[in-house]
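Ticket #4471: structure export looks truncated?
Reporter: QA, pipeline team
Priority: medium

Steps to reproduce: submit the single chain below to the structure queue and open the exported record.
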Amino acid sequence: MKKICILIMILFSVFACKKEEPVVEETVIPDQLLGDTDAELLTSQFWNSYQVSSTSGQILTGSITTHGFTIGRIENVSRSPIHSFMISRTITDSEYFAYYSQRYPRQMPVGKNLTLRAHIKGVNLEGEGVSLMIECEDVNLAHVQVADTHGSVSIKGTFDWTAYTVELKNLGSNVTTIFVYLNYLPNTTGTAYFDDITLTQAQ
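Actual output as written to the record:
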């Protein structure tokens, strides 16, 4: 009996002295991937605006008035709290379009479905209107996945704040960067406001 008790005590001491396995912490990818979702960070570098030629590829950056566009973060026309992004134009142009964009370059939620959601207000939007787009690049900057409302959802006219979404399914393992776009399409006139913009991941 004593031998059994001694054997049990030895076993307990061996297990007690066993080194603990190192804990590997997994990087948690947030459910919401964008910054400055309500357009309130006035010095934020999350969002950038561009004007692009569809023929030459010329890109103009910043909140400037060129090719008939007026682009900027404005006060007192918003869904929450007091700012929104605005793109406006009074002349029709088939060459130039404009957009706000944000880049997500951190750890990718591979295999997840991504939903871009934005609240949009339109004032006399005529022509092609506006669209929401998710675009993904690989390490070679090739476009490997795209989801766009253009061609499937008409966003134009005059309307109060309305939520629009676009979904990209099953994010590929080769994706290294995700871009989201708030597009003001060619051949469009009128004013579009964008606010409360999120990019969420789900199964």
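Status: closed, not a bug. The export was complete when the record was re-opened. Leaving a note from the reviewer for reference: The longest helix spans residues 2-17.
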